Amino acid sequence: AIGAPQIVSALSSEFAVAISASDDHTAVVTETGDLFTYGVSEKEVLGHEGIRWQLSPKKVTGVQRVVSVAAAREHTVLLVGTSFPKPSEQLRCLLSTHRVPSDELMPKKFLQRSLQQLCAQQIAQ
């Protein structure tokens, strides 16, 4: 059904580190710093010259070292850097900001429960 979550098989060989979606398009940053976009581009927000409809993710050429992305109706904003934190470092950083020791290895069940509690707290606020 349209509007229901779906697996994006075109990105199955990539590891996404950041995703942002607007009403009309989606932007995905991979662990290698590449940017993929797809959707509708009324104002050329996809970054693919001359393409208004891109139904599956397409790599944006000429863009490298993307760290983060924000998609909105009439623009796509990129944060470009020179290095990427590893997913485990990002997780440690997230946990340390919520007073969970970042230097110890936590059991998966504890970690999962903590992240669920964190999300529930954010929603409640």
Model description:
It holds the Pfam family RCC1. Keywords: Repeat. The protein has 125 residues and is an alpha+beta fold. The chain folds into two domains: 9-80, no CATH class; 87-124. The protein contains two helices and six strands. The chain has a four-stranded antiparallel beta sheet, with no helix packed on it. The protein has a two-stranded antiparallel sheet with strand order 5-6. It is globular and about 30 Å long. Mean pLDDT is 73; it is low at 88-113.
Write a short abstract of this structure.
With 125 residues, this protein is of the alpha+beta class.
Count the beta strands. Answer: 6
Please state the average pLDDT score.
73
The helical percent reads 10-25%
Gap between N and C termini: 32 Å
Count of the separate structural domains: 2
Q: Note the run of SSEs as H and E.
A: EEEEEEHH
User: Oligomeric status of the shown chains?
Assistant: single chain
Largest sheet data = 4 strands, antiparallel
The backbone outline, from C-alpha atoms, is globular
**Low-pLDDT runs:** 88-113
Radius of gyration: 17 Å
- Give the structural class: alpha+beta
Strands of the largest sheet, in order across it? 1-2-3-4
Count the helices. How many?
2
